[in-house]
Amino acid sequence: MDRPAITAIVHTRDSAETLAKALASLRWADELIVADMDSRDETREIAGRYGARIVPLEPAPRVDGVRDRVTAMAVHPWILVLDSDEWLAEDAESAVAALIADQGDRFDAFALPRFNYVGEQWLRAQPWYPDNQIRLFRRGTVTWPDAIHVSPRMTTGWQRLKELQPPGCLHIHHRNYRDLRDFVRRQLDYALSETYDDRPERFDFGDHVAKAYEQLALRQAPDRDGDLSQAVALLLAWDAVVRGVLHWESLDPRPPLGAIQALPIASCRVPRWLVFLRRWSGARLPWLFLFRTARRMTDEWRNRRA
């Protein structure tokens, strides 16, 4: 099937362990760019073996802060972005061609569902799946804010975004973590490089503890993912508390931490009915799409006010 020319972009930093698999799944792309942040391992040698154009970048705390600069270098009208620990299935070329041919006139970007793995186990429960990511888009229609885990923005409006609904559609495969040790290390890296709100009057440690309770409630799915889901839920609850302490330390002046008082107060901030509602809606993709759209619109409104 004929398709428009596509530039594939892979972001790397000391990614020799996973890069070959990512690039092998993109051999069919018309242009292949590896945007590398000062790798000291064999990342660039591997990229060269796959014929990639290597774009050297200065180290940065977040890849999101450089995505726009790299996408602007793309030659072709459509762009497909992967991280170095992601890959596509063997039929990706035909799936991309069919997607653009069938819906490219109505949509500028596609949010692809993603399989997330911890070790060899794919996590099936919400919110790990379908975990749609905006990765296939028309050049110039998507921008990324310089922040961790913040949704990219559509320059042509969210009505031009299509979220693919599984099963039977193109997926990204993502090796999130080699094991739980890797999970802890990387979550700590994210927390240390996070940009925290610098307004002391907006800080409430109870919000972070409430987030920890929320992670415990929403991430556990032993019926679908076994004990691993409970281990991950505990680690993400720990992560929420760690971020609260780091946020507090970054403030000047520092408000009262109120850590002891936050625990019983925060436990009431995620009522059981809300947990049930979110689990129920998360299992139903049309509702999930509506909630995500509302969240993105809220993020945009907050960014304009900030």
From TrEMBL:
Domain named Glycosyltransferase 2-like: residues: 8-148
Top-level taxon in the UniProt lineage: Bacteria
Protein name in the entry: Glycosyl transferase family 2
Organism: Thiocapsa marina 5811
Sorted UniProt keywords: Transferase
Coiled coil: none
InterPro entries noted in UniProt: Glyco_trans_2-like (IPR001173), Nucleotide-diphossugar_trans (IPR029044)
Any one Gene Ontology molecular-function term assigned to this protein's record: transferase activity
